[in-house]
Amino acid sequence: xxxxxxxxxxxxxxxxxxxxxxxxxxxxxxxxxxxxxxxxxxxxxxxxxxxxxxxxxxxxxxxxxxxxxxxxxxxxxxxxxxxxxxxxxxxxxxxxxxxxxxxxxxxxxxxxxxxxxxxxxxxxxxxxxxxxxxxxxxxxxxxxxxxxxxxxxxxxxxxxxxxxxxxxxxxxxxxxxxxxxxxxxxxxxxxxxxxxxxxxxxxxxxxxxxxxxxxxxxxxxxxxxxxxxxxxxxxxxxxxxxxxxxxxxxxxxxxxxxxxxxxxxxxxxxxxxxxxxxxxxxxxxxxxxxxxxxxxxxxxxxxxxxxxxxxxxxxxxxxxxxxxxxxxxxxxxxxxxxxxxxxxxxxxxxxxxxxxxxxxxxxxxxxxxxxxxxxxxxxxxxxxxxxxxxxxxxxxxxxxxxxxxxxxxxxxxxxxxxxxxxxxxxxxxxxxxxxxxxxxxxxxxxxxxxxxxxxxxxxxxxxxxxxxxxxxxxxxxxxxxxxxxxxxxxxxxxxxxxxxxxxxxxxxxxxxxxxxxxxxxxxxxxxxxxxxxxxxxxxxxxxxx
Length: 545
Description:
Layout: H1 14-19, E1 31-33, E2 44-46, E3 60-63, H2 79-85, E4 90-93, H3 105-123, E5 128-133, H4 136-146, E6 153-159, H5 167-172, H6 178-183, H7 189-193, H8 196-206, E7 216-221, H9 231-234, H10 249-252, E8 259-263, H11 278-285, H12 298-303, H13 308-316, E9 332-349, E10 355-362, E11 368-372, E12 378-379, E13 398-405, E14 410-430, E15 434-439, E16 443-445, E17 449-457, E18 461-466, E19 470-473, E20 480-481, E21 486-491, E22 494-500, E23 506-518, E24 523-535
Parallel strand pairs: 3-4, 3-5, 5-6, 6-7, 7-8, 16-24
Antiparallel strand pairs: 1-2, 2-4, 9-14, 10-13, 10-14, 11-12, 11-14, 15-17, 17-22, 18-23, 19-20, 19-23, 21-22, 23-24
Helix pairs in contact: 3-4
């Protein structure tokens, strides 16, 4: 698992200075097409026609991501200005996210398909190119595959699209975090549909359809963050493998028929939100924009790192996407709940750790946090102003961060004081025991049997056991203890878990802890959140009512 406890210091590159002239002319304000007088969803904008516009360049439609609006592309360091100065005709869409509540790919895709057709008609072109950030790439897939827009789109360029979902969305519905996610308003149809099991089902349904391959799809991704205290910084400890602070590389490159366009910008690592900055990625996207008549050039084909032939088997096994890869390991401890007064959490740490980073997220800036070592030393959060981004799943949370090298062995105590608040405590451990786990599949029919395999690594253990497992149906209230959980201890460091999935369709999170004693006799804890879905009789996963 990728964990960067300190932000990288990135020096500006000469290539960036040359590729992004500071004297670029400001683009005139886009023109609103107010097709929804009662709201924003379904409205669209057209950019000004550049003086150097040419029919030899495709029309570009920009699609925003989760909880964003069209200003994603028109604010500072914007793609609109870059495209305008390069002579491209442009358009922008407003999806339900612009009104404050994110829509699923089904809601957004239907609206987007209508706008795609309107933009092509407005500019009198047979096909357009789409540039989509984050979930906008999934909304675009839905528009093309399910709502009849594929004849109108030649090229799609995704920027940090969670094609396999995001573990952050899983956590928003987990037993540890649902209080906080509820308070900060980040649980809606958009986040629900980004859970990894829901997206596994979407991939299985979508990738086998001919419409999915009608447009050439490029996939761009990053592996950076926005610095200390930023939402993308803390997410590194949660997401598997390399990631951009919101989406893992495995998810961003999750289309079996997609073409890997770029990862970062040379040596400069890009965060999820920097991917939409023109100075970072416009010159990486621009060479891949094509007219409808241009087809798929030999140069474009050479860029493909994944091909249909090499990935057909992978697409056929979408319902067997593992919760985590075999080579990935969990070294995180999760805690969470409501706060009304003082809440105490205890965190056992084994000896020999290189570092522990503890991030306590709350909704109210008045809530205070302190950390106490086993010997009684009191730690205050690191000084620094939290960097927020309201569009992220936990982007509105306040962060209280502790980073401790060679932490003292024993039981640490976190004290959280607040009123009518909630918290999510993440302790990312560097060194010590790693817990590797995997699941056979994520999508089930009702009353199927689920199976998980767990194994501790990078540290000998004398014994391990599984603590109370709480099962929570996403979108519902408080979770319930899963009593019919069968645990088979294969050895001191390996166990298998089996249980019967519920009969009620929906998405579920099984949250539990694995505890044990290392070879020195010190107690340790690691947390696991297993996201899975149960389909209805029609093979569908219903959205919450």
